[in-house]
Amino acid sequence: MKLNCLVTYQRVSKYVIEVLTVTLFIIVIFFQSLNILFRYAKIADSIVWVEEFTRFSFIWIAFLLWPLADRNGSHFTVDLFLNKLTSRKRVYLEILIDLLAIGFVVLVIWASYRYIPVTMLYHTNSITWLRMGIVYLVIPLGLTLVFIERVLMLYNRVRMLRRKDFEEYK
Question: How many angstroms separate the CA atoms of 62 and 73, rounded?
């Protein structure tokens, strides 16, 4: 039952994140291309809000893809010392890294919930109907997903250490 829920969570979250980020990216490419066409073909004036929308979209894309990068182990890492450790010590260090990451995520989520209501009072520069708080909502959303991923990674590493037949960790 637990494994089935975990697999369902991973499938659904991956699907939703990928659909959102790819959709945002396609919209950005479309409007940036339209802006380039307008600017250089002198068909019309550039669309003013496209640059700001692009910046905000990339913020959303980065925060939404972070949990998938954690899940796949595809984050940039400096493993100079990590590769020199024995398998058991390496797992202990990765557990420490997971704990530090969880602490960081909790701190940022807590801070974002304090400051997002304040940013709801402000509008963006060129997209007047969009409040900055909506742009910043991706921070607690994305980091909550990162929190879940890191807790799952931590759980798997602790389980690995408890196994009697602890094999070479790669």
Answer: 15
pLDDT digits over 27-46, tens only?
999 999 999 999 888 888 88
Cα dihedral 41/47/48/49 (nearest 10): -140
Q: How does the average pLDDT of the chain come out, rounded?
A: 89
Instruction: Give me the amino acid identity at 9.
Output: Y
Rounded-to-10 torsion of CA 117, 120, 121, 122? 140
Global confidence as pTM: 0.85
Q: Using the structure block, give the residue that is written with the tokens 């990162």.
A: 146
- Which segments within the chain are labelled E, that is strand? none
Which residue type sits at 124? T
Rounded Cα–Cα distance for residues 66 and 108 (Å): 14
Name residue 43's amino acid.
I
SS (H, E, C) 56-102: HHHHHHHHHHHHHHHHHCCCCCCCCCHHHCCHHHHHHHHHHHHHHHH
Question: 170: pLDDT confidence band, cut at 50, 70 and 90?
Answer: very low
